[in-house]
Structure to design on (831 residues):
């Protein structure tokens, strides 16, 4: 197979002088046709900057230097702006991250997919419409002839990612760069997208896959390059890197991948702190007679010191369930009891005094903080709300393992992991019995996510907290949950002890969810 | 379609409110209504005053007066100016065309300048952007009468490019420029801001990665995202342009609604003032109705 991409000694810096940031510090890669090279790293490792530099889109403030940058024998370092434009979309296709916002929301899907075809005159103008439908069919977009006239907002996340792939491969580029192509997608959709990329590779396209998720990479990559602080710390065949990593950092990344250990041991029996029976919540659907049954007859028991995992795809009713048990919305039918007392049918005034008993932490903690408040103010307000006299802000910071110095900062200046720790500290400030964790680690890097999960488990043991743990990530759920509830279309299709449900699922839906999870070799097999 | 009807209903409601306010302004002022209508004209005979009481039905209860006021408006009867000795409607109809020409040309200039300058300077290097940004701020900050005098001094008296006071098309240029500058200044800043924000969005990166030129990303993707907020402000500015017309028409000694209004206000010719208010309110409501109806064309998501 011919060598498609040669990168030698690529470095990218932003700014200059004291503000200079070395994002990429001399990396070298080669990629052959029909192969997939994965560049793996955490936020700030320089992997996405590398991808953009290969497209000549590193930005106005970036300085890109390279010993060699060759695409199929063409020297990319010598290209002027006009020649670069002839490379982008025609010789290199980009599948961008954030499928939800990477398509122009005001243009139709058809025009978005047609854009590279028009720009590079890949097919005669009269045939563009047909070719777009063909591309959407090939990438598995259902009802392509209807979709071309729709706008991205009318498509699901998985469909949008397919549209992005269709537009990336429209001119049949020999190299496709996929930058976190499955972030924010459900496991089943993720599996379908990975299959699609795999088909491309088999058809002879060279695929450069950029990801922070080793489990995703394991599905597709022939070779893996692990990046950290702008350097490649380990590079080799995928099977070798995943099973016998040589570098410490790779080993740490692998260890952090959740869900490869067994589920936690069952907690000692304890009283029920949260009890829901036959919860129903419907929302009217504009233009349709039947309302959406977001949650449809869900019952659950949560004991003190226990974690109940709730899994399901987008739209399965997970988040509505969270809002029901924390009494943010009222159920249409059914009841919620908190700590053996009434909860859902209290008046808001009566409920306010007991709000401290159930707290929520969210996927995006930053938007749950007042951006003008410092960490200290945020936590002090929480302590005052809980009527706390003994504990101080520093006690809370110690509890979640944050340095005292961070108290004076505003949350926007903290890292994602630190922000989530502040959110946990704020929840703990009022001494709750139950914490609803709504995708608490889904936006975090694997190693950071692992630390936050360890923190949650430790706090549970220490304080007897009960967690309602909502996640679309089955590995994470397996790692922390004692029992699991599988939701589909607002109904519980399966529930039970974690090990039983996830290792021997009885419902076909649970099985399909599990089958879609990217498989990693179990931890023991690695040493 | 439902959106269109509800918007139209909303516009009518606003118009009704504005017209009711002008009625109240006349009838709730201190002193006799007849005095207000007559204004500074001291040569009004008692017979004429009796005629006014008769015409306006001033002897009748207020609500009857109000209904007949609305009825007269519906027929386009705006009352009579006892100072000009003509129906208000005729006075306005005579002065409207020059003002509409002036505002029309000014709007055209402002919109063209905005589109060209914003697209040409969005996300460009500072040396290209900074001079325009300075001019925009200056254009908004400088008092309009001063700008008008400056234009007259430089381009008419100094360079003799345009006549100072003339009725023809050449005489329209300088006043239109004076009227257009503040509008263009505000709109350009707004549009460029929107364009630059849209150019930072992930979909712009996707378009670049397809091989789209920066200009193409700007025109084919970013512009549609940046237009709605500019359009909103455009509607508001267009409504307030009548205030600018008062000043500009005065400086360039042009006939028009602005001059008519100024004379009426200084001469306390209340029927004319109220007539102009009714006409401009109608224009204002109509313009903003059109703007509202344009949104869904720019952003089809609003239809859903």
């Amino acid at each position: 197979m011919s060598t498609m991409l040669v990168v030698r000694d690529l470095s990218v810096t932003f700014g200059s002088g004291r503000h200079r940031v070395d994002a990429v510090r001399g990396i070298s890669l080669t990629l052959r046709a029909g192969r997939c090279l994965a560049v793996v790293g955490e936020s700030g490792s320089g992997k996405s900057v590398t991808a953009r530099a290969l497209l000549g889109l590193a930005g106005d403030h970036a300085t890109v230097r390279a010993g060699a940058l060759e695409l199929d024998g063409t020297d990319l370092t010598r290209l002027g702006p006009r020649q670069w434009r002839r490379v982008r979309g025609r010789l290199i296709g980009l599948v961008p991250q954030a499928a939800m916002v990477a398509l122009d929301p005001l243009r139709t899907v058809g025009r978005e997919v047609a854009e590279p075809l028009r720009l590079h005159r890949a097919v005669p103008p009269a045939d563009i419409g047909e070719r777009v439908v063909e591309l959407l069919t090939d990438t598995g977009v259902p009802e392509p002839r209807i979709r071309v006239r729709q706008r991205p907002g009318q498509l699901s996340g998985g469909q949008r990612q397919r549209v992005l792939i269709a537009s990336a491969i429209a001119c049949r580029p020999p190299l496709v760069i996929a930058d976190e192509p499955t972030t924010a997608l459900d496991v089943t959709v993720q599996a379908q997208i990975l299959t699609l990329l795999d088909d491309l590779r088999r058809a002879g396209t060279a695929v450069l896959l950029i990801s922070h998720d080793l489990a995703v990479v394991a599905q597709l990559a022939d070779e893996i390059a692990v990046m950290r602080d702008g350097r490649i710390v380990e590079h080799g065949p995928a099977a070798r890197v995943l099973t016998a990593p040589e570098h410490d950092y790779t080993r740490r990344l692998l260890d952090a991948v959740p869900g490869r250990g067994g589920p936690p041991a069952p907690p000692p029996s304890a009283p029920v702190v949260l009890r829901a029976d036959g919860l129903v919540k419907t929302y009217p659907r504009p233009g349709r007679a039947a309302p959406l049954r977001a949650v449809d007859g869900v019952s659950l028991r949560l004991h003190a010191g226990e974690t109940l995992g709730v899994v399901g795809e987008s739209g399965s009713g997970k988040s509505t369930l969270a809002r029901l048990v924390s009494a943010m919305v009222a159920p249409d039918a059914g009841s919620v009891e908190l700590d053996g007392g009434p909860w859902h049918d209290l008046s808001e005034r009566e409920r306010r005094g007991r709000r401290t008993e159930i707290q929520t932490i969210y996927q995006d903690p930053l938007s749950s903080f007042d951006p003008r408040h410092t960490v200290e103010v945020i936590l002090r307000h929480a302590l005052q709300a809980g009527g706390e006299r003994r504990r101080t802000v520093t006690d809370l910071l110690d509890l979640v393992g944050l340095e005292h110095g961070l108290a004076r900062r505003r949350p926007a200046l903290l890292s994602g992991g630190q922000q989530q720790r502040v959110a946990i500290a704020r929840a703990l400030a009022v001494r709750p019995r139950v914490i609803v964790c709504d995708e608490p680690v889904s936006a975090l890097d694997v190693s950071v996510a692992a630390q936050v999960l360890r923190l949650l488990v430790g706090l549970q043991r220490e304080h007897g907290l009960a967690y309602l743990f909502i996640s679309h990530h089955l590995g994470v759920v397996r790692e922390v949950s004692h029992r699991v509830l599988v939701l589909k279309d607002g109904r519980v299709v399966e529930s039970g002890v974690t090990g039983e449900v996830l290792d021997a699922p009885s419902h076909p839906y649970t099985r399909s969810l599990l089958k879609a999870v990217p498989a990693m070799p179990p931890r023991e097999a690695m040493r | 379609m439902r959106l269109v009807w509800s918007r139209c209903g909303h516009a009518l409601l606003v118009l009704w409110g504005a017209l009711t306010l002008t009625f109240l302004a006349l009838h709730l002022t201190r002193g006799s209504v007849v005095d207000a209508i007559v204004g500074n004209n001291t040569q009004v005979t008692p017979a004429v005053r009796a005629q006014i009481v008769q015409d306006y039905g001033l002897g009748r209860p207020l609500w009857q007066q109000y209904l007949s006021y609305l009825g007269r408006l519906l027929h386009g009867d705006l009352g009579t100016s006892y100072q000009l000795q003509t129906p208000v409607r005729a006075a306005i109809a005579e002065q409207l065309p020059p003002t509409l020409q002036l505002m029309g040309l000014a709007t055209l200039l402002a919109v063209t300048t905005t589109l060209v300058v914003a697209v040409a300077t969005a996300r460009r290097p500072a040396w290209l952007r900074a001079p325009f940004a300075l001019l925009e701020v200056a254009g908004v900050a400088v008092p309009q009468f001063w700008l008008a005098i400056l234009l007259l001094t430089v381009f008419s008296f100094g360079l003799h490019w345009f006549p100072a006071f003339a009725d023809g098309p050449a005489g329209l240029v300088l006043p239109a420029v004076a009227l257009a500058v503040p509008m263009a200044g505000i709109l350009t800043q707004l549009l460029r801001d929107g364009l630059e924000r849209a150019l930072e969005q992930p979909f712009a990166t996707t378009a670049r990665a397809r091989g789209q030129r920066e200009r193409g990303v700007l025109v084919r993707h970013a512009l549609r995202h940046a237009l709605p907020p500019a359009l909103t402000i455009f509607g508001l500015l267009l409504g307030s342009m009548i205030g600018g017309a008062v000043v500009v028409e005065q400086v360039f000694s042009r006939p028009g609604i602005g001059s008519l209004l100024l004379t009426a206000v200084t001469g306390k010719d209340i029927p004319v003032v109220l007539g102009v208010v009714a006409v401009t309110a109608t224009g204002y409501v109509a313009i903003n109705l059109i703007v509202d109806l344009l949104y869904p064309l720019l952003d089809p998501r609003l239809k859903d």
